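Extended Data, panel c. Modelled sequence:
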Amino acid sequence: MLLTYPTNTPVRVPCCMLVTAVLMAALCSATPSLYGQPTSTDDAEAKAILTSAYQTSKNKPLTVEHCSQIIALCAQAQQRTQTPALTAYINQLTAWAHNKRGEQYLQLAGENEDSNDTETAQAYEAQAFQEFATAIAKDKQLWKAYHNRGVCLAIAGKAPEAIADFSQTIQLKKDYANAWFNRAELYLDLQNYPAAVTDYTEVLKLDNTDVTALIARGDAQLMLRKHQPAIADYTAAIKLMPDLATPLIQRGTAYRELGQWEAARTDYNKALKMDMTSAVAYQHTAWLLATCPEADIRNAELAVLAAEKAKTLTPTPDWMLLDTLAAAYANANRFDDAVQQLTAAISQAPAAEKQALERRLTLYQAGKPFRDAVVNP
């Protein structure tokens, strides 16, 4: 998932529009008749306090301390008025400040996470969540607070709750692409591929140049075995960002699953030329060179080199990389090494993948390499 802290993925983090400007305009245009009673001295004092709060909101950069000042000033103003219009404004401004303070806490969480201070980062995350929850309680129309709380929930691994918040964001703000994207990411992670495709499509309706959404929708299409739509998405992403390796790797995989081996090799080679540090590119190249049923595509020596390079570039190899390394060793007639790597892969793999891996293990134990097959759409 791309859902991370604001400092790491600004594309998917809410911009902080100064909604106080709109609220202040409403306050300044209000007349005594709107309140249903003559303006009292207390109302005048409340307005003066709120004007100070508004001026504080204009500080750039806005800090936690500024937000705390705004919240305190709003509390003071509330004590001086019972006027419905002023009370509504106070609730909106208070909610805005809590949301902003939550965003500041999330930024601090990200900074501490980057410094490997996980405990402090988690404490800031918890504070941020409470700020967003308070903002929502004060103003149930504040869509950014729902989105931000959804980000917190997603980071915490609470996907259903996060999806609910992103859905509420979408209900309140249908043209906010980040909410569609983040919900799509969670659907993709939950393997709800049709829902992911639908949400990525909404993102692309809002911005058809969003390369990340194009690639992600292609990935979801690929998981649904809709190879041609996936290839179309990857191709569109390549046209928009021709120097990006990821869509080339993914398109190569789509070609490989269709049995278009030469097209797959071409895309993998292009990806490696663009990024010689891409473990994923080396891994996919190794798999093709080791397992392709066409002998003129296979290359035992290069497959092993590519697989070992991928492992070198990966701090903690996962079961898929170990599976690839095993396939490369088996293709090079290094069956003992293949069995060793695949045994390690099986111990890490999810239950749904173990049966296929065990079939390959049987092949290697019998001194036979694995050969890939075309995926039936």
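Confidence is low (pLDDT under 50) at residues 1-38. This feature is highlighted in the accompanying rendering.
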